UniProtKB/TrEMBL annotation:
<protein>
    <submittedName>
        <fullName>Lipid transfer protein/Par allergen</fullName>
    </submittedName>
</protein>
<feature type="transmembrane region" description="Helical">
    <location>
        <begin position="12"/>
        <end position="33"/>
    </location>
</feature>
<keyword id="KW-0446">Lipid-binding</keyword>
<feature type="domain" description="Bifunctional inhibitor/plant lipid transfer protein/seed storage helical">
    <location>
        <begin position="39"/>
        <end position="125"/>
    </location>
</feature>
<dbReference type="GO" id="GO:0008289">
    <property type="term" value="F:lipid binding"/>
</dbReference>
<keyword id="KW-0472">Membrane</keyword>
<dbReference type="InterPro" id="IPR000528">
    <property type="entry name" value="Plant_nsLTP"/>
</dbReference>
<dbReference type="InterPro" id="IPR016140">
    <property type="entry name" value="Bifunc_inhib/LTP/seed_store"/>
</dbReference>
<dbReference type="GO" id="GO:0006869">
    <property type="term" value="P:lipid transport"/>
</dbReference>
<keyword id="KW-0813">Transport</keyword>
<comment type="similarity">
    <text>Belongs to the plant LTP family.</text>
</comment>
<keyword id="KW-1133">Transmembrane helix</keyword>
<comment type="function">
    <text>Plant non-specific lipid-transfer proteins transfer phospholipids as well as galactolipids across membranes. May play a role in wax or cutin deposition in the cell walls of expanding epidermal cells and certain secretory tissues.</text>
</comment>
<keyword id="KW-0812">Transmembrane</keyword>
<dbReference type="InterPro" id="IPR036312">
    <property type="entry name" value="Bifun_inhib/LTP/seed_sf"/>
</dbReference>
<keyword id="KW-1015">Disulfide bond</keyword>
<dbReference type="Pfam" id="PF00234">
    <property type="entry name" value="Tryp_alpha_amyl"/>
</dbReference>
Length: 129
């Protein structure tokens, strides 16, 4: 970098920082947000839906549907991921106090998920294809 003016050095550093920020943002918002889709990651994606599932409000909030669509797009890439997410949600339905099963079952249509199954406490996740 010998012979570069101070302005060029500052601009180069700024360009490197901007490039780094853009790459970080791209990775953070990539559609595949989890490698193995752990149960904790799945539950975090469903968290915005909890108030609605417990009876608050007349419709699922946009943040809920957005998270569920993102989750669906990620886990539906393989049957194993889909079944693992199903098992996680199935277990979670048993742990959430005040859960309204009717609201849970309505999320597929309310959020336009187009899933071939409905999450409920008694679902057989192994039957999902």
């Amino acid at each position: 970098m010998k012979g570069m003016s101070r302005t060029h050095l500052v601009l180069n550093k700024l360009l490197i920082i901007i490039t780094y920020v853009v790459v970080v943002c791209m990775v953070a918002h990539a559609p595949i947000w989890c490698a193995a889709c752990s149960c904790e990651e799945v539950k975090a994606m469903v968290a915005p839906c909890l108030p609605f599932l417990r009876g608050s409000g007349n419709s699922a909030p946009n943040s809920c549907c957005t998270s569920l669509i993102r989750l669906r797009n990620t886990v539906s890439t393989t049957t194993v991921r889909l079944r693992n997410a199903c098992e996680c949600l199935k277990k979670a339905t048993r742990l959430v106090r005040g859960l309204k099963n009717g609201r849970l079952q309505s999320l597929n249509s309310r959020c336009r998920l187009n899933l071939s199954f409905v999450i409920r406490p008694d679902i057989n996740c192994n039957s999902i294809r």
